[in-house]
From TrEMBL:
It comes from Natrarchaeobius halalkaliphilus. Residues 1-22 are annotated as: Disordered. Residues 5-119 form the Thioredoxin domain. One of its GO terms (molecular function) is protein-disulfide reductase activity. Pfam families: Thioredoxin. The record marks 39 as: Deprotonates C-terminal active site Cys. Keywords: Disulfide bond, Electron transport, Redox-active center, Transport. Disulfide bonds join 45-48. Residues 1-15 have a biased composition (Polar residues). The active site is at residues 45, 48. It comes from the Archaea. This is Thioredoxin. One of its GO terms (cellular component) is cytoplasm.
Amino acid sequence: MTTDAHSGSPGQSTDRPVHVEGEDHLEELIADNDVVLVDFFATWCGPCQMLEPVLDGLAGETDALIAKVDVDDHQQLAGAYGVRGVPTLALFAGGEQVEQHTGALPADRLRSLIEGYTE
C-alpha cells in the first residue's frame, strides 16, 4: 500500500513513508516539505529490510517526510543522486540536500539528524 503524498496540506509530513513514483514526484515532495529523508533502497537488500521498520517509526514520530525510492524501479533517479550502494539515505532541508549516508543508520542517529533540521 502506498500513501498519497498529496494528502494533508503542503509542509505537513505523513505518518507513513511515501513511495516515490519518479523524479518529478520526488522533486515535488522535496519542494512541498521542509525536511525530507529519502531512502534509496532495494527489495532484495537485507540492511534495507532491517531499516524499514525504523523509517516507519520515524515517519510517525518526526516532522520529516520519509520518502522511499526503489533503486531497481528508478535507476536513473538513483544515479542522479549519486547512489552507489543501498541503503542510501539523503536528507533534504529547505529544498536542498544537506546530508547523505550510505548504510543503515540506527534510529537514534536518524532522529537526531532529522531534528537538527526541524527545530
